[in-house]
Amino acid sequence: MLSGQVNLLISGWASPSAPHVMIKIQVVPQGGSDAYRLLRDKVTHKAKTWSWANKAKTRLVHSGQSTGYIEVGSADGVLVAELYPGESGQYFLIEKLVGRLVAWFPQEIFAINIQFVPEVRKPKKK
User: Fold this and answer.
1) In what order do the strands lie in the sheet with 78-84?
2) Which partner for 35 in 6, 27, 67, 122 could form a disulfide, CB atoms 3.0-4.6 Å apart?
3) Minimum mean pLDDT among 17-26, 48-57, 78-87: which range?
4) In 3D, which of 110, 106, 52, 51 has the Cα closest to residue 79?
5) What three-state secondary structure class fits 63?
């Protein structure tokens, strides 16, 4: 892969427009980088439209959407994120997040994986 090239993989068998689909994103860093730390530092010190909704810096919110958020964490340097859409729908957050990651970290990101995971609904007890 060429340096600075971002690979976008979309996987999953569920339709992204289905009402009960959880969107999960994995950001794989180049070399020994830590994608979560890169994002945490950028949002904490330089971002204008992104901010943290909690002190633990695991809930990311965008100023353009009042109700949705992204839950983020780290797994061996890989940024893992789950989108919880608000009124604007799930595509607002995914569009903004992926766009920012590519703009902020073109040399540090190896891949961005997007998964459409069907949510399993438990039947209600009668």
Assistant:
1) 7-11, 109-118, 21-29, 78-84, 69-75, 59-62, 50-52
2) 27
3) 17-26
4) 110
5) coil
Element (H, E) at 21: strand 21-29
* pLDDT per residue as tens digits for the range 78-124: 999 999 887 767 688 999 999 999 999 999 999 999 999 887 767 77
Torsional class of 31: left (φ above 0), alpha (ψ -120 to 50), beta (otherwise): left
Give the whole-angstrom CA distance, residue 43 versus residue 39.
6
pTM of the model: 0.77
Q: Say which amino acid occupies 2.
A: L
How far is residue 115's CA from residue 28's CA, in Å, rounded to a whole number?
14
Q: How far is CA 111 from the centre of its chain?
A: 12
Kindly report the CATH class assigned to 7-118: alpha beta
> Over the range 25-51, which residues count as b (16 or more CB within 10 Å of their CB) and which as e?
bbbbbeeebbbbebbbeebeeebeebe
